[in-house]
């Protein structure tokens, strides 16, 4: 059924205006961006199909253009709209983190890392460099690997930390498999990084494993 034929209270735009954005489902929010559906499928149904195909928002936002456009009714225009939204969300979180202490914003740190890493199909190693008051200096991807392995070189991490005059760092990497539990190799790598950075008086505050919407914190599990 076309959205225009739905009762006013069920149309995404009207529902948002009357009840607020929080009242909309993921599919309804996406439908506002998609604007139109295809014959036999309205924008909400098209959005729901996309969410199922990519297993949620993280997967959808991280999908490459080719995979995104493989769904009838989706293409470059809708893709660029969503990528613009994703980038704005990243910049908003960076702005928020830059204005305050990282340790006072654990939820924002988690949101920031999920947005960057949650839906990727390849493994990356990410670092959030902080000043002496634990305020954000810069966050960046350091290494990129295959689906199952990333090569991380402590010497390069140390060089980057020194280049940014960092006093502390938070590490993160993703598990495209969906399992957020750290491997033995993850634990050993963290210990090597802590040892290398400790020699130049840079503290490792945490290491997160991101698997879709799931997060594992080394600090919370006393692994640091």
Task: Explain what this protein looks like in three dimensions.
This protein is α+β, with helices and mostly antiparallel strands. The protein has two domains: 3-87, no CATH class; 100-217, Cytidine Deaminase, domain 2, CATH 3.40.140. It is built from nine helices and five strands, in the order H-H-H-H-H-H-H-E-E-H-E-H-E-E. The chain has helices at residues 12-19, 26-34, 43-53, 57-62, 65-69, 76-99, 106-117, 154-163, 184-198; strands at 124-130, 136-144, 168-174, 203-211, 214-217. The protein has a five-stranded mixed β-sheet with strand order 2-1-3-4-5, with helices on both faces. The chain is elongated and about 65 Å long.
Topology, element by element:
Blueprint: H1 12-19, H2 26-34, H3 43-53, H4 57-62, H5 65-69, H6 76-99, H7 106-117, E1 124-130, E2 136-144, H8 154-163, E3 168-174, H9 184-198, E4 203-211, E5 214-217
Parallel strand pairs: 3-4
Antiparallel strand pairs: 1-2, 1-3, 4-5
How do the strands line up in the largest sheet? Answer: 2-1-3-4-5
- What general outline do the C-alpha atoms trace? elongated
Task: Work out the count of structural domains.
Answer: 2
CATH topology of the largest domain: Cytidine Deaminase, domain 2
CATH architecture of the largest domain: 3-Layer(aba) Sandwich
Mean pLDDT: 87
- Binned strand content: 15-25%
Number of strands: 5
Number of helices: 9
Quickly give the structural class: alpha+beta
Q: Provide the succession of SSEs.
A: HHHHHHHEEHEHEE
Largest sheet: 5 strands, mixed
State the fourth-level CATH superfamily of the largest domain: Cytidine Deaminase, domain 2
The low-confidence parts are none
**Termini, distance in Å?**
54 Å
Percent of residues in helical segments? 40-55%
What would CATH call the class of the largest domain? Alpha Beta
